[in-house]
């Protein structure tokens, strides 16, 4: 293998795949990045057995690289990244000599790294399906930021550590819950999907993919298989395992009716909850109590050790009904943050029934927070 | 105690003293900030027994506060900070009721905190000396950034975890060493000091004080006592304990003569060392070897497991002598970073003698790095 490549081009590729580098080093070869140099492209692959990221750099007419000899090798990920990042030169030469010695050199710098034979890399199948499901990048990013936070981090309930993608016809319904709150996003797909899918994607993996994408408006192809999903985006392939198990049916969890709807200014309401929870911040469930007196809203919290807070706010009360209800400040704040609007509707069914948050101008997103009994 | 105070004024004061808040909570009262409200000023004090910070807010004619009732109380530091930071109002009211209940309120928010009687606060003497030593803020900041990094973090040698201030006549000599390298800064004081001092100030404390100061050009008064030092700056008093023990005499450590002086471009030389140390980054002492061939300089490093690096650089060789010498890349880089100049002189006395770094235009700073035998 021998090539000369633009530093920034290579660095961009390495940065993308490096997110899949195994830090645990259980399988030494997985701390390496596989370089495959073909006659018209360089393919970089990294994997930690949970996710696999592959990117390719195509030979272009802007002199992005010169391919002198095809070949493959595995290079220690952390060293190649550091070297490429710190070399000041515009172009970098990479050459394999004596089978497993990797020379990385510019005019004044020369690195010789010990490589690993590419045959030792696990055989990872990045196959594509015949009928991928297409999704706008912006919508995909919304799904992740608006639902992933509500997943559980408790590995004792594996299925709740992922986002449920439920696809039927041209509807994609995404659910995420840790059993104390639920985030639901429903989007219309551009094309009818022939098959129904009901899968669970690990939240941390889908968040990682969402971060790699950056901002833009490219189409994402989702290739769904029995136990894995492959995202195809720009020059990136991102594959994640799926979580086994049946996702709980959450469709009957969201109340359809409510007797009281408050319309609040999102930022104002968020700040009020934030302040009301200051004194509770030591406890896991930072409970605050909301009480209405028509359009006057009071948020209170109390800690025997530290003290008490009382916050007041004027809101729009659509029903002239009243409620007193307690909930986790953190869950409420995270649910509020997921909305892109200035105003949010907060719907109450009863003191021990789920609280529902909606944006009156966008029906696609529903946030649900369970109340906490305080007596 | 009762007052109304501008939020930003109070927040600024709380931020300053909060750096001394004890996080270990061994003495519960030290997790609090002492508020003392006099007829014309509010004094805030925090201490972790190692450092004490006090700041005062004087009643001004710009309506910064209204003092309604004098008094004192200790308020939990972390809560009062969070509350003041998050209140949106321009003014905040603070009032002590029922002796130990603290009301903090604005139009729509009301906090009630449990306070602690000010009598429970340890008696900390922030006395001033008759003849403080004056130092420019900029010079003080230089001393800290140019020497503190070279101190030891090993508590087994307490005296080396501090900066040695050696004052005689109008000369202040500051030394910092971990016994593998030495940083020395010599500054001229504006006034002759009657008494000689030879003290050791804990590096982490002096760094903390340097951070609180911000940028500016105010005069600092240093009040030195037997076992403590009080810095007086703007409206801040910062007191630190001193480290007991005799600081090693470092005056004969710095070679006075050298047979080879290289003049290097600081940034270029730094980058070369940085790259040469990439493959050694796993080891504590990341050793690189420097070799000259007249004006050609080579930096090499080698790791059996990972590989080797060779970096080349053209430098100015003032003596047409040559050397081959090994040292810690990290120590060399930290020494280089302490200079404000574009060029640095690197002086060699021999392969097993200290390497000396100087700025040819500024004699006040000397950095010394010990070589490492590699054979």
List keywords for this structure.
seven-stranded antiparallel β-sheet, alpha+beta, 3 domains, eight-stranded antiparallel β-sheet, DNA Polymerase III, Chain A, domain 2, 24 strands, 17% helix, homodimer, Proliferating Cell Nuclear Antigen, 375 residues
Model description:
2 copies of one chain form a homodimer. Chain A is of the alpha+beta class. Chain A folds into 3 domains: 2-120, DNA Polymerase III, Chain A, domain 2, CATH 3.10.150; 133-241, DNA Polymerase III, subunit A, domain 2 (DNA Polymerase III, Chain A, domain 2), CATH 3.10.150.10; 260-369, Proliferating Cell Nuclear Antigen (Box), CATH 3.70.10.10. Chain A is built from 6 helices and 24 strands. Chain A has an 8-stranded antiparallel sheet. In chain A, strands 11-12-24-23-22-16-20 form a 7-stranded antiparallel sheet. In chain A, helix 1 (7-18) packs antiparallel against helix 2, helix 3 (137-147) packs across helix 4 (203-213) and helix 5 runs antiparallel to helix 6. The longest helix of chain A is centred in the first third of the chain and has 12 residues, at 7-18. The mean pLDDT of chain A is 95. The A-B interface holds A 76, 79, 82-83, 86-88, 101-102, 108-114, 271-272, 274-275, 278-279, 281, 305-313 and B 76, 79, 82-83, 86-88, 101-102, 108-114, 271-272, 274-275, 278-279, 281, 305-313. Strand 9 of chain A pairs antiparallel with strand 19 of chain B, so a sheet runs across the interface.
């Amino acid at each position: 293998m021998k090539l000369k490549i633009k530093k920034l081009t290579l660095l961009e590729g390495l940065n993308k795949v490096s997110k899949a580098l195994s830090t645990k080093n259980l399988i030494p070869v997985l701390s390496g990045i596989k370089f495959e140099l073909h006659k018209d492209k360089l393919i970089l692959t990294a994997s930690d057995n949970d996710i696999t990221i592959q990117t390719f750099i195509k030979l272009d007419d802007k002199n992005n690289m010169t391919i002198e000899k095809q070949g493959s090798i595995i290079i220690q990920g952390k060293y190649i990244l550091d070297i490429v990042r710190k070399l000041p030169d515009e172009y970098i030469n990479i050459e394999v000599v004596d089978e497993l010695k990797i020379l990385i050199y510019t005019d004044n710098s020369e690195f010789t790294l010990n490589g690993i034979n590419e045959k030792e890399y696990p055989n990872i199948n990045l196959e594509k399906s015949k009928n991928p499901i297409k999704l706008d990048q912006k919508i995909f990013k919304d799904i992740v930021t608006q639902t992933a936070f509500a997943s559980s981090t408790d590995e004792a309930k594996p299925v709740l550590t992922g986002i449920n993608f439920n696809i039927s016809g041209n509807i994609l319904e995404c659910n995420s819950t840790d059993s104390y709150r639920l985030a639901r996003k429903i989007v219309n797909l551009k094309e009818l999907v022939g098959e129904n899918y009901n899968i669970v994607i690990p939240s941390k993996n889908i968040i990682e993919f969402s971060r790699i994408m950056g901002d833009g408006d490219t189409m994402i192809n989702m290739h769904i298989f029995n136990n894995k999903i492959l995202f195809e985006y720009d020059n990136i392939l991102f594959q994640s395992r799926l979580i086994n198990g049946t996702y709980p049916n959450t469709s009957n969890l969201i109340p359809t009716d409510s007797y009281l709807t408050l319309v609040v200014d999102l930022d104002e309401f968020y700040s009020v909850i934030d302040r009301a929870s200051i004194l509770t911040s030591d406890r896991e469930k930072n409970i605050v109590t909301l009480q209405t007196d028509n359009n006057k809203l009071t948020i209170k919290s109390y800690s025997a050790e530290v003290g008490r807070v009382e916050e007041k706010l004027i809101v729009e009360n659509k029903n002239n009904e009243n409620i007193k209800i307690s909930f986790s400040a953190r869950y409420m704040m995270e649910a509020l943050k997921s909305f892109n609007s200035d105003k949010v509707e907060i719907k109450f069914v009863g003191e021990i029934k789920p609280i529902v948050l909606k944006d009156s101008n966008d029906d696609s997103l529903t946030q649900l927070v369970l109340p906490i009994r305080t007596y």
